[in-house]
Records
---
Amino acid sequence: MASVGIIGIGSMGRRAAETIAAAGHAVVVYDVVDAAARQLAGRAGIEVVAALSAVASRADVVLMYRPGPAQVAECVGGKGGLLEAARAGTVIVDQSTVDPETSQHMASLAAQRSVGYLDAPVLGRPAMVGKWSLVVGGHAADVEKCAPVLKLLAANVFHIGASGSGNQVKLLNQLMFGAINAMTAEMMAIAD
């Protein structure tokens, strides 16, 4: 069983940690907001740590749930970031919604350290963990290495192509839902 690190214990990260630990994987979690990570303290199979380096040095696969590109860049390549402590062969899986260029840049930095990097944003709501769809950008070998973990979270894992491809599809998905929401609001206004 792989050792899995999770960065960001919000609604997505918490559910991912619980699901992965329930499947028998050792899970190491970290959040910049200590109280967020502490909500998982004492759960079977989950260890809360106080630094990114503790996650990076222990995990074979690291899942990230960060709010935006700046936080992803800081978490991966910043001072004290994952790449400072990650072992060669580790794979970082960014499940945040960020621009494709950020994913491509982080993948380039990771490759310099012999660390894999995937962008695998979530298509689905937090409560639907296990039934999510993941559109994944990155190297096929890294997708294959992470597949046992990703398949715990998602009913569908689609390797879309090179780094950044997953976030390209996610952004298109968000545009589609934005258009649907705008149309729905207009129809409701007309119906009034």
Note: DSSP finds eight helices and nine strands in the chain.
---
Amino acid sequence: GEKPDARPHLLVTLLLHTGIKKSECMAIVLNHFDFDDPNEPVLWIRYANPRRRHKERKLRLPVWWPALLAEYRAQYQPQEALFPCTARNLEYVLAAVAQQADLPHGLSFEMLRWTCAVRDYRVGMPADALRQKLGISKITWREVGAKIAKLAAPAL
């Protein structure tokens, strides 16, 4: 009868659908979510440092994700920060998921970020939209975009 831990599912799906970095994930507070439109739930990536404000962005979440967040909130009762723990704790959560899924290379924030990018590329997300979603500059995109295209190419 006990409900399964919602945190691993919440964390993995958040990373897979948004492609955010570990530092961005750790900075999420509950009021960064906007669920006013049930057909378009969003997460706002915010920066406290004014020099990084240009990286702020609005990321769509799956329509079912708010229910998962509600389950997580019922279990963990976070007050402000989405994940009131250390980044290392979340790395342990990902390691446990990888072990349960029998993933030989483990699971990391970076791996889920790249997986998100490759999936979005494969479904035809325009390059500039993908660049903005990942929060990277046009200069950085030259190298990263080429890597994503290479990863997304069908294996021979």
Note: The two ends are 47 Å apart (CA to CA).
